[in-house]
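Re: the 266-residue chain
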Amino acid sequence: MLSDRQQQILELAKRAGRVAVDDLAGRYAVSVQTIRKDLNELCDQRLLARIHGGAVLSSGVENVGYDARRMIAADEKAAIGRAVADLIPDRASLFVNIGTTTEAVAHALLRHGGLMVITNNINVVTAMRPYPEIELVIAGGVVRRSDGGIVGEAAVDFIRQFKVDFAVIGVSAIDADGSLLDFDYREVRVAQAIISNARHVILAADSSKFERSAPVRIGHLNQVHSFVTDAAPAAIRQICRDADVRLVETAATASEAQVPVVADAG
């Protein structure tokens, strides 16, 4: 059984994706030790997972709400979006799947000309629809009300009709072994079809994805050609080197004067 405070902490984590010890201690006017005890008990029940300074929603079977995900690492996602857009030339064809980071990519692509964008992401369609230089093709299927994703076998069959220049994919989590993970097996089937039918696959994911897990496997990092993130752990860097995946890290150090770090494999 959860205490009232623990239940409220869990609800906060569901809305925001993560909670911080210091913030919770101030919110509930209790000691940080008390909050740590609450978080430990929630983690013992696998409802949350501890990170430095707080906790994140556990991998379980439930994702954070879409609007909340938009707010998590929003600046990092915008930078990732710009870096991905720099990899895609004008007059290219591309897939864009569901996700807040891929939505950020779509916004960064709005100045491109002659694009053909095939997507199962209603939010991408909404962002790009006013731009006549971008031809939009939307998959058919079941609309997932939680985030506007179009999923199901009809969407998979639709994607398989195309062979495009680029695929921009997002994921819910990245395991330490390089596994790419999601929560909905229906969306996973769409993502797998996208990966199989693109000449160059770009994974776009911020570093919070390394702190989370999810129950359904999309594939592995070695199946993508480019990986754009704000900052990658050493183990992920090694996987990229071993698999010849181009790693682009947008979190520049002060000495790099805000120039994105590009680590080419090999």
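Residues 74-87 form the longest helix (14 residues).
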